[in-house]
Amino acid sequence: MQEIRCKVCSKLLGRVPKATAFEIEMKCPRCKSVRIYNKEALEAQG
Ligand SMILES: [Zn+2]
User: Fold this and answer.
1) What's the pTM?
2) Does the record bear DNA-binding in its keywords (predicted)?
């Protein structure tokens, strides 16, 4: 699993499977910053 952490205060916001691509807007409950987090699916290596 890969962790999604707040880019401002590093609070853990959620977890997603490593191979999952996502683009999600999340509001941090601690520092109230709203950021869009996205990741492309990882390609298998080797
Ligand atoms: Zn935060």
Assistant:
1) 0.74
2) yes
Between the CA of residue 19 and those of 4, 31, 37, 44, what are the distances in Å?
Answer: 14, 28, 15, 9
- Cα(12) to ligand 1 centroid in Å equals 8
pLDDT in tens, 1-46: 889 999 999 999 999 888 888 899 999 999 999 999 998 876 665 5
Residue 41 CA to ligand 1 centre (angstroms): 24
- List the chain domain ranges: 2-39
Structure tokens at 42: 């990882």
Phi, psi of 24 (to 5 degrees): -140, 140
Write 25-31 long-range contacts (CB < 8 A, 24+).
30/6, 31/6
